[in-house]
Amino acid sequence: MSRNTAPILQQNKMGVMPVGKLLANMALPMIASMLVQALYNVVDSIYVSQVSESAVTALSLAFPVQNMQIGFATGIAVGVNSLLSKSLGEGDQEKANRCAGNGICLAAISIVLFMLFGIFGAGPYYAMQSSVEETVSGGTAYTAICCIFTLGIFVEVLFERLLQASGRTVYTMITQGTGAVINIVLDPIFIFGRFGVPAMGVAGAAVATVIGQWVAAAMAVGFNLTRNPDLQLAPRHIRLHRKIAGPVMAVGIPSVVMMAIGSVMNFGMNQILQGFTETATGVFGIYYKLQSFFFMPVFGLNNATISIVAFNYGARKPKRITGTLKCACLVAFCVMMAGFLAFQFLPEVLLGFFNPSADFLNIGQSALRIISISFPIASICIALGASFQALGNGIYSTITSLCRQLVVLLPAAYLLSLSGQVNMVWWAFPIAELMSMAVTAVFFIRIYRQRVQPLFHATQS
Prior knowledge:
The chain has helices spanning 5-10, 19-49, 53-90, 93-120, 122-127, 133-148, 151-165, 169-193, 202-227, 242-274, 278-314, 318-345, 347-351, 358-371, 375-390, 395-407, 409-417, 422-425, 428-460. The protein is mainly α and 461 residues long.
């Protein structure tokens, strides 16, 4: 090996590998693992649909709470991911270690809060949304189990992001894939009762889910300890440092808020749709399961993009930043176009997996066809939105999400519901996405001029 090539090969691949190859190298394992995650979410609903339509509705009403769980876990992890990637790009190992330690402390606080909700809040939450006893009892049990044992999802997400931040995404594919497979295998055992296990119904789906999460969490911790030399975590790093926790939360809180916004949106949409029939609420829940096959890969791409852009921003390499964003936009658009075509031409096939009634199928076909019109627009918003968090301005992501899911979507859905036709409500999604696209474009132009253009000028001088 020549003296000139040795230093390059010793560098982190996020600073030297060709952008297209790097994005594929980092994103594909995450996309594969998130597709498996999407699969087991859908499998959950397929199994539960064989119990009853009320069971499907119970899982739909649980989605806002699960979304908040994932939101807090992901928000903390994204904040750590962004700052840790930037620290590695700058060559500051000690700061990178403290980022990981602060993430563990922040996750512990969130875990306690969700456990308390699972114990005291799950019952009242369902009682205020449904008067159907089967929906309330099944949903309460499902939500309580997921929240009380929430440790698994927080540890899994945080330690997987630590692997991603240092470019070791193949291990996240293994952890997420293993957790998903375990969940899929255990679902029928706990839901219907097999091999001497009593039938638990909807609660069984929750048990299978948390077991999968805990196994994946254990694996993610193990991989960080044995396969991640960029992270040298010691007990002294696991405490809150104001100068570290502040920037982590500055980037992470917008992600939490975005997911919280999604939970509020889902709660609001459920209330609007309950004004028609409980079947419409179930359809909305199944839509969210199906759309995850296309949104999850785009979010996996988004996570890889955040790490790459943050690293190269710290390393002051603007061409790699713009090249990454261009590739991300193109790939995201292709994925979401596939989703659009599937929802337009195969809605009967997709809904047929969930043992639908004639009414469920009729409402669901219209929902899938109308909502999917927004998919190609959403792809660009999500891809460009990665730059906001990676470049340290997560508030832009919060504002775009507010426009998409609260400021425009819920008011539009409510006004359209006054027509008395449930199919009109679905048009709120394309309307909101168009508004989000306009806001995203304005913010991207602004952050590009403030953060990226000066780097080009600095490299040319």
